[in-house]
Amino acid sequence: KAQLPPVGEEESPALRSDVLRAYGLTVYECDLNEVLRQSQDSGILYNATVIRQMITHDEVTQLPKIRFNGFADISIVPGDELIERLASSYSEVGIDETMVITRSNKRANVFNQGIRNMVLGREEELTTGDMLMVVKNKYKNNPSSEERGINTTINNVRHATPLSSGEGKDVEPPALTFIANGDRAVVRRVRNVRDLYGFRFADVSLEFPDYNAEEDMTVILDALMTEAPALTQEQNEQLFQRVLEDYEDIPLKADRMKKVREDEYYNALQVKFGYAITCHKAQGGQWAHIYLDQGYMTDEMLTPDYIHWLYTAFTRTTEHLYLVNWPKTQVE
């Protein structure tokens, strides 16, 4: 119950029994309230429990104060030490086990560009080794609306439920028939960057570690740095209309629509860099080292949503939580 619900929702539909029963399932209910990622003497677990109690006991009256003394798995990172600390984490646990969690797509873009330029020394727009995160579901065939609904529900469960390491593999859809919003990918090769329909595309060889698979896909580069969660509604509409123009010679509207839905450019994979992400994108995932950037906070900005956000962010890590530029007013 303390997890962050989807954007615009007070509760995740994937965790509602009536929604699951609508798929003909027999549903049994219980509350998960024990965090298993950290040991009982963990400072992450101690502080997460305090934050969780603010949610479940309706005690949201002031910003939570974090206890650091006596704990080895939680610490503060000043901004001027962030680059050095991130480089150390990449060396110690790996890029794929290090994540920056922040409040907005705009801040995630700033972190991603800074990490690529100043930590990894990457100047190209997209290059071999880049870590990406899928930001829009992609269907490799043209499924029915029922299949889309089932796949979306599976994805919501994956990204709403706090799984311990190694669990949850049985809820994956068949490999690469459905690539879910939130899935990770590593760039192996980039080629044939081109401008079409007012957008930029590239053919990219991607490795999907969660599926143990590699595949060549067309990626839309415009999504990489947008400040929206993915391409905006206006951009999607623009792309749709421009692609539709290519099929104007087809007499039946239904046939034209079918061609657009199957078009490789209209269906190009939408991705962002995966070094820094929002907490909604981190939901359901876990990393050895988490760097948490909550940004500027005051008592006036305190809301139940913020407490859910903070609890979810705290519980993403398995080894060490680094709080970036954490204010002294929020230290116990």
Give a verbal description of the structure.
By secondary structure, the chain is an alpha/beta fold. It is 30% helix and 21% strand. It contains 9 helices and 12 strands. The chain has helices at residues 17-21, 43-56, 82-92, 105-119, 145-160, 233-245, 253-262, 279-282, 304-314; strands at residues 74-77, 98-102, 131-134, 138-139, 178-179, 184-196, 199-208, 213-220, 269-273, 276-278, 287-292, 317-324. The strands form 3 sheets. A 5-stranded parallel sheet has the order 1-12-11-2-10. The longest helix is centred in the middle third of the chain and has 16 residues, at 145-160. The radius of gyration is 21 Å and the shape is globular.
Q: Which tags fit this structure?
A:
332 residues, single chain, alpha/beta, five-stranded parallel beta sheet
Blueprint of the fold:
Blueprint: H1 17-21, H2 43-56, E1 74-77, H3 82-92, E2 98-102, H4 105-119, E3 131-134, E4 138-139, H5 145-160, E5 178-179, E6 184-196, E7 199-208, E8 213-220, H6 233-245, H7 253-262, E9 269-273, E10 276-278, H8 279-282, E11 287-292, H9 304-314, E12 317-324
Parallel strand pairs: 1-12, 2-10, 2-11, 8-9, 11-12
Antiparallel strand pairs: 3-6, 3-9, 4-5, 6-7, 7-8
Helix pairs in contact: 2-9
